[in-house]
Each structure stands twice: as C-alpha cells, then as structure tokens.
Amino acid sequence: MARTASMKIWNVELGLAVHIKAPNGRYIVIDLGSTNDTSPLQCLYRKDVGYMIITHPHLDHFSDIQNIDYARPQILSRCKDYSRAELLEGSRDCDKDKIIQYCNFAESYNGPVPSYMDPTTDAPFDGLTTEVFSTSACDKSNKNNFSSIVVLKLGNAKVVVCGDNEKESFEILMKRTDFKEAIKDAWVLVAPHHGRESGYYEEFVDLVHPYITIISDKSGTDTSASQKYTNKSKGYKVHNKLTGETEDRYCLTTRKDGNIEVTFGETDSFGYGGTLQINTNV
User: Fold this and answer.
1) pLDDT cut 90: percent of the chain above it
2) Measuring CA to CA, how many Å separate 100 from each of 32, 63, 103?
3) 232: alpha, beta or left? (left if phi > 0; alpha if psi -120 to 50)
4) Mean of pLDDT values over 193-213
5) I need a surface site. Which of 41, 71, 196, 281 has the fewest CB within 10 A?
6) Domains of the chain, with CATH numbers?
7) Is the pLDDT of residue 219 over 90?
8) Residues 75, 109: contact at Cβ < 8 Å?
C-alpha cells in the first residue's frame, strides 16, 4: 500500500508555520508562526506531535508559543547558539513574555533522543524521514544565518523547508557534500527568508530545482524574489479549492494563495515515481 504525507503551509503573514502529517498520522511541526486571528498550534489539539523544529529564535517563527500546550512535541530541534540573555537583549517590552516562554519551553528539552524515536530513521513516522541542517559558524549579529534547513523524504518524494537563511549560511552549507546531496532535486521548496532577495542564493536553488516553490510572507513586501523562484522552478498543476480551477504554477505565495497543502509520497500506480498533489486556499 502506498504511503503519503500531507504538508500544510499556513498563511501566517510575516512568519512561518508548517505542519506535516506522516502516513501513520503523527505530526512534524516546523516553526510556530501565527497571526492575531490564527493559531496553527490550536489546530493540533489532541494530535500526536512527534517532532517539532523551530528553525531559529526570531519572534515571527515562534509567535504562537503561548499556545504550546496544545501541541507539545516528544522531540524538539532548535537553535542552541543564543543564550536567554542574548535573546532578551534589546527586545521590545511587548515581546519579552513570549521570548521568556520560548526559552522556558526550549530549555526543557535537553535529553538524548532514543533510537526508536530518531526522526532521521524510517520508524517514528512510517517511512517519512527528516534531516536538519544548520551552521554555527556565522556572525551572531544576524540570527537568520543560524536557521535550520529541513529535508523531508518519503519514497522518491523530497521536500525542502528553509528558515530565514541568508548568503553567509548558504556559503558555508553549500560546501558540505551531505547537504548538497540531501537537497538535490527536491520536489517542493519552501523558500528561505520569506522569499526575500536577501535569502535568494542561486547555487542552492539551482541544486534543489523544484517543481514548485512556496513563499510564506505578508502582502505589500517590496523585496520579493518570487519571479526568480518562478524562473528556477519546473512547474506543476495546482488546484485552487476556492475557485475549483487547476492551472500550471511555478511559485505560490501564502499572501495570494492562502493556506497551501502539499500531498507527497509513494504511489500504487505502475510507471509513476510517486505522488505529488498541491492545493491552494485550503
């Protein structure tokens, strides 16, 4: 029987929130973006959250932290390069409570990961594996460059989800053979740094060479590299659930396409390399 996973990229304006449902029904969560009206974490109430990755400690990537009790994960991956004092230094008074909550949450996960729960193996998520890449060798004045890049694989399907990586971190990561092999020829790319010019690194995008690039960002942004991602993506049929129309697309954005859902994985159909279905406005 074919195994598929479903990934939802939430429209959280400036931020990122990605939920992946594995073939066995367990969830992987990447980042905790939210808006005043939308708490993605609340939608995971009573769901089995096996793994959570917070790509880096910028508030727009953990703004939903006050709702963490709806979806506490069994395993947490997060940036450990900044101390509590460093995260609080220079922060606005209105943000301090969320930063403290984030620190309390992050610091509560310090034990080793049992082998049977290791997300890099097939076991915990019924064939869906996860690799996380980052570097600690960048200038600490820019937290974006300490972001994780997450690679999800199921069968022949591969999805790459980026934090807010910029040039300095890409220059380091692209020297790693294991990183380049992991990202190569992915089916879907969730673009770094909200699709901004500062996160566009051509050598990286050329190697990923996705069918579809997805950008999570707010409207009115004037630094978008969406046309560059369009030019580098192969294109795929996308179904708009609001209009009922299906068309070939190359680059999707939450600001125009709302919540985006990607189903990926294996197939029972002979002669096909796998399953890929993409819906917008879900």
Assistant:
1) 93
2) 15, 12, 5
3) alpha
4) 97
5) 281
6) 4-280 (3.60.15.10)
7) no
8) yes
Per-residue confidence (pLDDT) for residue 269, from 0 to 100 = 86
Neighbours of 242 (CB within 10 A): 11
Under 8 Å between Cβ of 239 and 276? no
What is the per-residue pLDDT across 136-146, written as a single tens digit (0 to 9) for each? Answer: 999 999 999 99
**How would you classify the pairing of strands 246-249 and 236-240?**
antiparallel
The span from the CA of 97 to the CA of 50, in Å, is 26
How far is the C-alpha of 260 from the C-alpha of 150, rounded, in Å? 18
The amino acid occupying position 182 is A
Q: How large is the greatest C-alpha to C-alpha distance in the chain, in angstroms?
A: 58
Instruction: Output the six-digit token pair for 216.
Output: 């999570």
| Count of residues making up the chain | 282
Handedness of CA 135, 136, 138, 144 (dihedral sign): positive
| Mean pLDDT, residues 190-206 taken together | 97
**Cα-flanking dihedrals φ and ψ of residue 96, to 5°?**
-60, -40
CB atoms within 10 A of CB 161: 29
Q: How far is Cα of residue 222 from the mean position of the Cα atoms in its chain?
A: 22
Q: What's the gap between Cα 118 and its chain centre?
A: 19
Q: What is the mean pLDDT of residues 28-44?
A: 97
Closest by CA to 161, choosing from 169, 151, 170, is 151
Residue 215 dihedral angles phi and psi, to the nearest 5°:
-115, 130
Hey, how many other C-beta atoms are within 10 angstroms of the C-beta on 18? 27
Residue 192 has pLDDT above 80, yes or no: yes
For the chain, the straight-line distance linking the first and the last C-alpha, in angstroms and rounded, comes to 26
Amino acid at 92: R
Contact between 44 and 71 (Cβ < 8 Å): yes
User: Counting Cβ atoms within 10 Å, is residue 228 exposed (0-12), middle (13-18) or buried (19+)?
Assistant: middle
Lateral strand order in the sheet of 149-154? 129-133, 149-154, 157-162, 188-190, 212-215, 251-253
